[in-house]
Amino acid sequence: MSIRIGIVEDHSEFRQSLCFLIASYSDFSVLWACSSVEDAWKQEPADVLLLDINLPGQSGIDAIPEFRSRFPDQKIIMLTILEDEYHIMQAIRNGADGYILKKTAPPRILDSIQQVYEGGAALTPMVARQVLAFFKPAATVQDTNHLTPREKEILALITEGISTDKIADKLFISTQTVRNHIKNIYEKLQVHSKAQAVAKALKEKLV
Q1: Which residue segments constitute the domains of the chain, with CATH numbers given?
Q2: pTM
């Protein structure tokens, strides 16, 4: 029995190439291929779902929990061009079984489908490095929960994608003061960028 695959990909040429790739192997079959999450809801559950992130309507990452709720046995692999830590950690946090890039070699994509179907996790080497780095224990242990109320407020605004200048305007403080708070947040969370701060804040439910 072949592994039935669902595809949610809005780029028609790439979607078609995936269909051709999967159909060329007897162990796999394309159950359906849609251009949006909304269309995918109308389909029967697949064994493995290949899900893009940037889609018309609901994003792939936001849709993961609902796919999990509706089709708990369906495996989910994010197949995307996005390779930044924020999207990777958001997808994994929401319940994705794998995260691979569209530039991945076709045989590797098929291997990932098989791996996830058998209960494993599929991550391209670059993605795996980012995940391992994120969860790697820090050399020195610091209490990440000792954020001040103001720091928590600023961290919450950062997670909403608000810029430093706009945070300053919103809180009626100087831009330099916001930068100082952000520097302190980075030190307490042991991160080095806004993306890492957001990923860790979401992972540890700090906001």
Answers
A1: 3-135 (3.40.50.2300), 149-203 (1.10.10.10)
A2: 0.66
